[in-house]
Every structure is written in C-alpha cells, then in structure tokens.
Specification:
Length: 271
Amino acid sequence: MKHFVIALLLLTTLSLSACNSVKVPKSTMGHSMSATPTDVVPTKSDWKIADHPKANEDIPISIFIKDKANQPIKSFETVHEKKMHLFIVSKDLAYFSHIHPNYKGDGEFAITTAFPAGGDYKIIAEFTPKGGGDSSIESHWQHVEGEAAKEEPLVPDQELTKVVDGKKVSLTFDHLMADKTLHMTFTISDATTDKPIKNLQPYLGAMGHTVAMSADAEKYLHIHPMSTAGNGPKVIFMTIFPEAGVYKVWGQFKHEGKVFTVPFVINVPQK
Ligand SMILES: [Cu+2]
C-alpha cells in the first residue's frame, strides 16, 4: 500500500515554520491545492551537535525525534529508500548537501559530516513517522566556527542553462508564478556532444529529486518527478511555490552511477 501511495506521490511541499505552514496535497487529483496541512504527524526535535563545531572537521550530529508529548517516536517509514533525508544549506544557499543519517533506535538519528567553512547553516530533517502519510520536517540553525566563505549574493540566473559534471541542464517552466500549480522541467544533454541523455538512472527511488528553498531559507520544498516513466532527457516536476520571491532550486539526478546536483536561482513572480 505504501508503495502505491509513493507511486502516486507527485509532490511534497512544506514550509518550515508552523506559523506559516504550507502543505500541498501530494495528489493533484483533488480540486483543493489549498495550503491545508494534511496527514503530517506533528513532531518536536532535539539536536545534539558539538558545542563549538569548527569548519572542515568531522562533526557528529544527533537528532532526536519526539512527539508533541516529548516522547520519542520509535518507528519511521522508509521513504525514497531512507528513514531520514537531511539537507544542509549555508545561509547564503551557496552550499548544499543531501545526506542520510542512520537510525539508532528510540527516535535517534545520527550522522557525521563536515561543514566547508565558518558561518551559519540550516539543517533540515525530513522523515515520516510510521503511519504518517506525508513527511514531517524538523530544522535547526547551526553556527560553525572558522573562516567564512565569501558570501555569494543570491541573484536570479539570467539564463536557466548550466553545465555540471559534463551535463548540460536546462530548466523551464510552463508558467512561473507563486501560489499556482506549475510544471518545472529539467532537460539534460551531454555537454560535449549535445546529445540528449536518455539513460538517467533512478536516484533514491525516483528519476530525480528537486529541493527548492526561499532566499531566507524559511520555505523548503522537496519535489519528486510526476512520473517514473522515462529516463530522460526530460524530467518533469510539479509543484507550487507558496510565495513570490527568489528561490534556489537544486535538481539531483543520477547518470552512469554518479549523482550530480545542478543549482539554479529563480525569481518567482506574484500570481
Ligand atoms: Cu535523501
């Protein structure tokens, strides 16, 4: 049944803070695309990270997931092959990492990672307590000591074509505007020959994953392709950007055994 639900999964749209929570139903079959939380299990979290983590050192991170009564949540669904997906972004959104903590039991997830420079990072954990229909999100801002990287201004890309790891990737939208269901399409070709790539491989159970984050790192969307059919060159995602503004979008795809991540900065206009 879960697999069937996952197969129907078209998108997951979540906001990080409860006060401006945006939840879009996974299925677009209903009429309502309103921002109503559906079957997200309410959670709390404790984050245990070394007191003064330094850049470029291995930093153990433990995340304790609890229910609203402060009791550990003990069992989790496996979603896209993992019990937890962890995203780490620097405050300027220049740095992006997608990793998978291990489940230790009793609500505790653990991973060791290194931060590339001093500064502030947002860490976002996505997981689904057993029985939950949609993923829950917990997030944490972490300061890291050490020399800061030069801040990269978040400027919308003039042209939505990038070359990453020998792939040329273009991003197009059917209509780009806030608060409206839209299609975003990644088209992937070989950067040297310009030939369309038709042998993309599934990555974590989907033909691609897209994460989008608002410029202030407060709004977060994790989007999956509309269909698992086809292996490129086009991968189509459907989503809603909850508000107008600048977003950074990271598309992640797998080709010839290697995952590549392609970032874009877009400006989503008002409806
Ligand atoms: Cu993941």
